[in-house]
Amino acid sequence: MGRPARRRSTLSTPQATGKGTGASTAAASPPVISSVSPAAGSTGGGTQVTLTGSNFTQATAVRFGPNFALSYTVVSATQITAVSPPGSGTVQITVTTPGGTSNGVAFGYAASPTLTGISPSTGPASGGTTVTLTGTNLLNATAVRFGAVNATSFTVVSATQITAVSPPGSGTVQVTVTTPGGTSNGVPFSYSAVPAPVLTTVVPGQGPPSGGNTVTLTGSGFTSATAVRFGATPATSFTVVSDTQITAVAPPGTGTVQVTVTGPGGTSNGQPYSYVTAPVPVLISASPDQGPVVGGNTVTLAGSDLTGVTAVTFGSTPALSFTVDSATQITAVAPPGAAGPVQITVTGPGGTSNGVAYFYVGVPTLTDASPATGPASGGTTVTLTGTNLLNATAVKFGAVDATSFTVVSATQITAVSPPGSGTVQITVVTPGGTSNGVPFTYVAAPVLTSLSPTEGPVAGGNTVTLFGSGLATTSSVLFDSTPVSFTIVSDSAVTAVAPAGPAGPVNVTVTTPGGTSNSLVYNRVGPPEI
């Protein structure tokens, strides 16, 4: 490769010193490179870099790896500018002077960026659209341009993706990315004309002179709204809910003013809003004053001056819906909430009311029922344990209400079982909802059909077999009122040891969780007389 074009500084030729024929020449120091800027450039060459260091005077060559710079200029003893030749990968830049060749500093050849897509490919003339650019070799991007205009901002996500915010513009422009490797091809982006927003309704159409009430604006073209005004006064705040709806907080004012919405396409038509002196609504009570954390229950609010109410809130959460029934009553559907108390308030043209207490109740849960069995005839007192059991309004055995129940605490209820059969689920109902179920099994009363033997000595001690049904859960065997030891043989047989007693008949009964059986007669026989 030929020598590059260059300009260089030269030192004056050293003068002969001393006497006689001898002469000395000062030895030159080798050059040193401390930095290069930029440290990367296009593989096609042509990048101008600035080398900073020392001893650059009389430079005779600048190389990028083995290749000479396309050109270079010695600016001073500490600075050289050079134009990179074509290359690839990372190479070492060196400077050669009469004093020698410098150390090397790294220079990376970067591949040219390419763009393959842009999304979205359209946006308003006012700019502000965030677009995603996809392509290759996008790392270290130094500029993103929409036509000749720099993007408002951009972020390099990866080597294949950049996000950029469009500047204002018009028509269709080419979006390009510039990196140390050069400038990419362009992808088209079209600026679309944005119509002015249109306002159709303002609800409510009036409010207190003090402002502060929330007004809902409906219409079209609201997506990029930049201002909402009540007359010449900006709204205290506003929220773009959708392209067709905005909620705004009215500022203080007087009389009737025009509400307008301003967007990139201009300012909408106006809709009237009147500042009126109205009484502040008053709440007296909420019924019921408690409900489930999942919400959804209907609450009746009583008070005064409720006619123009525009909002009902439970704490800071709007009611799911509400109806103004009259100047003294509102029905509202409670939203979900956390367990605990909140204040219900209503807002009307005159302002926001006082609060009335409402309590969110946790859903009850049951963990145990004891005993878990009882006779089909009912009458068993069952202890239920669980959580959130206060204010229970019902205890059910299957679909049947308990004969009675008592709320002992937030974790315990006692209930008397109604008649029933089979296994049913016991549940508890509170203002917080209906609990899970715990099983309770109805057990049929035992039946005795025969005894064997049917008589025995007055001294007792003999074994009597009781036959019948429902005997597997026998809990006691009585001879009249005397309990005896027994052994369960099966559901149809129990053996018992007869007690001592006077001669004569006694009634034998069996008791199980299902109740007490019918009685059969057993005779005690005295010893024979002589």
Short description:
This protein is mainly beta and 530 residues long.
Quaternary: single chain
Q: What is the number of helices?
A: 0
Give the DSSP E fraction (strand runs of 2 or more residues).
Answer: over 45%
Separation, N- and C-terminal Cα atoms: 152 Å
The averaged pLDDT comes out at 90
3D structure, described in words:
This protein is mostly beta strands. The protein is built from no helices and 61 strands. Strands 3, 5, 6, 9, 10 and 11 form a 6-stranded mixed β-sheet that branches. Strands 13, 15, 16, 19, 20 and 21 form a 6-stranded mixed β-sheet that branches. A hairpin with a 2-residue loop joins β27 and β28 (245-249). It starts with a strand and ends in a 5-residue tail after the last strand.
Give keywords:
56% strand; mainly beta; 530 residues; single chain; six-stranded mixed β-sheet
How are the SSEs ordered, and which strands pair?
Elements: E1 5-7, E2 32-37, E3 40-42, E4 48-54, E5 61-64, E6 67-68, E7 71-76, E8 79-83, E9 89-97, E10 100-101, E11 105-110, E12 114-119, E13 122-124, E14 130-136, E15 143-146, E16 149-150, E17 153-158, E18 161-165, E19 172-179, E20 182-183, E21 187-192, E22 198-203, E23 206-207, E24 214-220, E25 227-230, E26 233-234, E27 237-242, E28 245-249, E29 256-263, E30 266-267, E31 271-275, E32 282-287, E33 290-292, E34 298-304, E35 311-314, E36 317-318, E37 321-326, E38 329-333, E39 340-348, E40 351-352, E41 356-361, E42 365-370, E43 373-375, E44 381-387, E45 394-397, E46 400-401, E47 404-409, E48 412-416, E49 423-430, E50 433-434, E51 438-443, E52 447-452, E53 455-457, E54 463-469, E55 476-479, E56 482-484, E57 486-490, E58 493-497, E59 504-512, E60 515-516, E61 520-525
Parallel strand pairs: 1-7, 3-11, 13-21, 23-31, 33-41, 43-51, 53-61
Antiparallel strand pairs: 2-4, 4-8, 5-6, 5-9, 7-8, 9-10, 9-11, 12-14, 14-18, 15-16, 15-19, 17-18, 19-20, 19-21, 22-24, 24-28, 25-26, 25-29, 27-28, 29-30, 29-31, 32-34, 34-38, 35-36, 35-39, 37-38, 39-40, 39-41, 42-44, 44-48, 45-46, 45-49, 47-48, 49-50, 49-51, 52-54, 54-58, 55-56, 55-59, 57-58, ...
